[in-house]
């Protein structure tokens, strides 16, 4: 169950990272509220996952999911650059996440 919590926590991390863009510097109430809620849920689920997972593995996978998802969503939603080098680096992060999962 720890891995399920961790994956969901990573998804909520993507949500709050993308949500920051929509808050426009925390000047919009609804996006700001949703972003803060996503932050709380993400950290709470990470805490639950870390009851059973090594902290280094859990934190690295959590941030990795958030990083990869946010980068990809940034490309899709905001037109962030999708160069071959950038996509290759994202692939390396995914490989690291898989490696940590396999070794834990």
From TrEMBL:
<comment type="similarity">
    <text>Belongs to the drug/metabolite transporter (DMT) superfamily. Small multidrug resistance (SMR) (TC 2.A.7.1) family. Gdx/SugE subfamily.</text>
</comment>
<protein>
    <recommendedName>
        <fullName>Guanidinium exporter</fullName>
    </recommendedName>
</protein>
<dbReference type="GO" id="GO:0005886">
    <property type="term" value="C:plasma membrane"/>
</dbReference>
<dbReference type="GO" id="GO:1990961">
    <property type="term" value="P:xenobiotic detoxification by transmembrane export across the plasma membrane"/>
</dbReference>
<feature type="transmembrane region" description="Helical">
    <location>
        <begin position="59"/>
        <end position="78"/>
    </location>
</feature>
<dbReference type="InterPro" id="IPR037185">
    <property type="entry name" value="EmrE-like"/>
</dbReference>
<dbReference type="GO" id="GO:0022857">
    <property type="term" value="F:transmembrane transporter activity"/>
</dbReference>
<dbReference type="InterPro" id="IPR000390">
    <property type="entry name" value="Small_drug/metabolite_transptr"/>
</dbReference>
<feature type="transmembrane region" description="Helical">
    <location>
        <begin position="84"/>
        <end position="103"/>
    </location>
</feature>
<keyword id="KW-0812">Transmembrane</keyword>
<keyword id="KW-0472">Membrane</keyword>
<feature type="transmembrane region" description="Helical">
    <location>
        <begin position="33"/>
        <end position="50"/>
    </location>
</feature>
<dbReference type="Pfam" id="PF00893">
    <property type="entry name" value="Multi_Drug_Res"/>
</dbReference>
<keyword id="KW-1003">Cell membrane</keyword>
<keyword id="KW-1133">Transmembrane helix</keyword>
<dbReference type="InterPro" id="IPR045324">
    <property type="entry name" value="Small_multidrug_res"/>
</dbReference>
<keyword id="KW-0813">Transport</keyword>
């Amino acid at each position: 169950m720890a891995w399920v919590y961790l994956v969901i926590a990573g998804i909520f991390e993507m949500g709050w990272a993308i949500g920051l863009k929509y808050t426009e510097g925390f000047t919009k109430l609804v996006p700001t509220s949703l972003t803060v809620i996503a932050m709380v849920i993400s950290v709470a689920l990470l805490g639950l996952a870390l009851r059973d997972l090594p902290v280094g593995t859990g934190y690295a996978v959590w941030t990795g999911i958030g990083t990869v998802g946010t980068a990809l969503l940034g490309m899709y939603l905001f037109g962030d650059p999708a160069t071959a080098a950038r996509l290759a680096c994202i692939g390396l992060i995914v490989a690291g996440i898989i490696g940590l999962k396999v070794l834990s």
